[in-house]
Amino acid sequence: xxxxxxxxHPASEAAAPGHLLESLGVxxxxxxxxxxxxxxxxxxxxxxxxxxxxxxxxxVRRERVxxxxxxxxxxxxxxxxxxxxxxxxxxxxxxxxCKQLALFLLVPATYRLVQGPRxxxxxxxxxxxGAATAAFGIxxxxxxxxxxxxxxxxGTLGHYMTYSGLLMLVIGTALAKLLFDERDRIWxxxxxxxxxxxxxxTSTRMAWVGVCAAAAVxxxxxxxxxxxxxxxxxxITFAAAGPAITHRLMSMFDANDPTRRxxxxxxxxxxxxxxxxxxxxxxxNMVETVYPQYRVSYAVEKINPHLHNVPMQIAAERGLPALxxxxxxxxxxxxxxxxxxxxxxxxxxxxxxxxxxxxMLAAGLFEYNFGDSEFLMLFLLxxxxxxxxxxxxxxxxxx
Length: 399
Prior knowledge:
The structure is a single chain. By secondary structure, the protein is mainly alpha-helical. The protein contains 17 helices and no strands. Helix 7 (about 160-180) runs antiparallel to helix 16. The chain is globular.
């Protein structure tokens, strides 16, 4: 692990109050970044350690809690979610689902603990672990026969959609470093083929859309003319993946594809839920429960746990005010990232943040990725890092 993981304090401050807490918290956050792509149980255990260290630091040093601006609408979104849960037809089930809101604390914890050059180091850790999981996914496809729609590469995770969504975020990270990091381009270039092939082999179309959208944004920021490279790389990747993957790609444009028809049906069903419950929605974790009441005649599946569209899911589940707060969160986040992407010193991590948001939004039109814990954890880490990189290490003596 790079020396950037550990605080760079003078030796005289090594014994200062909270020094061990900060070191442990930073190490735990690096572990979260790594194990989110491997094991959610380990990642959340490490997150608990990181949060305890962060809170203890605030208490021991009597610090004022500082957060990036985009955290305020995200916090308001969490608050409205709790209101929605209170008005749910099954408040117990809805409040149980709200435990995921605790993941939002990744933002202030990361903002405090991952300062200065640690942000860049953390992106390298994320990219390296992603490359290892990509290699494992290729192994699953080639040797363990995870080569059917009923059994796709999923790494060590529980679902191929989670796996492909994380790969999408890692690809955006690697491409941003390849395009904007003048000092460290060799490693991203080496791992990129494996990452692209692995996400292709998952046959997850929403991840493909997200990768293309994120790549397009990064290429436009770098040089608009580079967009010409995107279809060439895509063609090479899908040619290497084989005819079955190519056929899956073409199904995106097939009006009779059952999953496409079902997603269209879910949009209509979501509209009906919003019409009946515009303020607080049907309640967190209640879409599956009320789904039979709203199922339209041309829907394919008899039941769906969610509506496979982030904005529609939020509006139907938590109400239009929650959707407005979420859109405000995204708008504030993107504005902050664009401001930083024009600062040469912090351009790489800001570009990573923009690729992350773009990928999430594009893929989120076809999947409720914002509600996936593993995806949400890595997403929040990556979008917070650009705001961390502009901060200097806090001095122990200043506490």
